[in-house]
Amino acid sequence: MMGAAFGWSPDAFWRATPDEVAALVEAARGEDAGAGVDRDTLARLMKEHPDG
To answer: What's the total number of domains in the chain?
Structure first.
């Protein structure tokens, strides 16, 4: 998604820090983005889309 949304190559994504990714996503969301993802939603998404 980072490649499609921000033009990052896979290498750029894997070299990025979590803070860099979060800052880019937060900036793209704008000021009215809300509080973000809650713990339950994150757990569900991690289960639905495992990395391994």
So the answer is: 1
Q: Quick: pLDDT tens for 10-52.
A: 888 888 898 888 888 888 877 655 567 788 988 898 899 888 6
Q: Which amino acid is at 7?
A: G
How far apart, in whole angstroms, are the C-alpha atoms of residue 39 and residue 50? Answer: 16
Is 38 contained in some domain?
no
**Which range marks the domain in which residue 12 is found?**
1-28
Yes or no: say if 3 and 13 are a contact pair by the CB < 8 Å rule.
yes
Cut 0.85: pTM above it: no
Structure letter (DSSP) for residue 8: -
Give the containing element (helix H, strand E) for 45. Answer: helix 39-48
